[in-house]
Amino acid sequence: MITFAEPIDADVLRVRNEFLTRKDLHASADAVARLVDVSPRHAMVILDSLVHEDFLERTVDGQYVHRHLKEAVVTRSIACALILVGCVAARAAGQDAKTTRGAQVYVEQKCALCHSIGDKGNKKGPLDEVGSTRSLEELRAWIVDAKGMTVKTKAPRKPEMKNYTLPKEDLDALVAYMASLKKK
Fold first, then answer.
1. pLDDT in tens, 169-184
2. Residue 140 domain-assigned?
3. 173 in the same domain as 114
4. I need a labelling partner for 116 at 20 to 30 A (CA). Which of 52, 93, 104, 127 fits?
5. Per DSSP, what are the bridge partners of residue 120?
6. Structural contact between residues 171 and 140, judged by C-beta atoms closer than 8 angstroms
7. Is it the case that residue 79 has pLDDT exceeding 60?
8. Which of 7-16, 26-35, 48-57, 78-87 is the least confident region?
């Protein structure tokens, strides 16, 4: 005895083809009805059969999406989130190392002879909140062109701060350390 399988609906094939050729297609039953020129009820039957086959998946907002696309989007989203977390952590670790080096440069250059941070150093030149009041550019300028900044800001403090010539890494670290001194 020969049995025949159910005939494959040409509309099902057209919908399947649309989702395969348009990789990012998200469509409602009404949109699919217009796309393949069938009634919304027939479109819903087609979409439900494709969901039943695990070809499509219905999202919470009533849209239909190719199942593999949704998995790829989720996988890509997770991968991007992990990369972002790694970058943020690496940058924070790098920034912490730079700030730590900046504190060392502060000590090595004997900045505490003229400046104070917390209870340590010369109270006439407090730097406790300098990161909240000065930009990175201003902090850098105070270190490398203190005389120019004294004139520019009409700073009354005597004796005037001297200009420092530091290696780029040390200068960047000292600026990062100064920038970290903010209001708590």
1. 988 988 888 888 887 6
2. yes
3. yes
4. 93
5. 117
6. yes
7. no
8. 78-87
The model's pLDDT over 128-141, given as tens digits with 9 standing for 90+, comes to: 888 888 888 988 88
Give the angle 141-146-148 at the CA atoms, nearest 5°: 85
DSSP for 66-131, please give it.
EHHHHHHHHHHHHHHHHHHHHHHHHHHHHHHHHHHHHHHHHHHTTGGGT-EETTEE-TTSB-TTHH
Residue 123 lies in a domain: yes
Instruction: Say which CATH number the domain at 157 has.
Output: 1.10.760.10
Interatomic CA distance for residues 103 and 96, integer angstroms: 11
91, part of any domain? no
Q: What whole-number distance in Å separates Cα of residue 78 and Cα of residue 58?
A: 21
Q: How are beta strands 120-121 and 56-58 bridged, if at all? A: unpaired
Side-chain-side CA neighbours of residue 103 (13 Å) = 10
pLDDT of the residue at 181: 83
Question: Which one, of 109, 105, 115, 178, lies nearest residue 141 by Cα?
Answer: 178
Does the reported pTM lie above 0.85?
A: no
**Higher per-residue confidence, 67 vs 127:** 127
Q: Report how far residue 126's alpha carbon sits from residue 116's, in angstroms, rounded to the nearest whole number.
A: 5
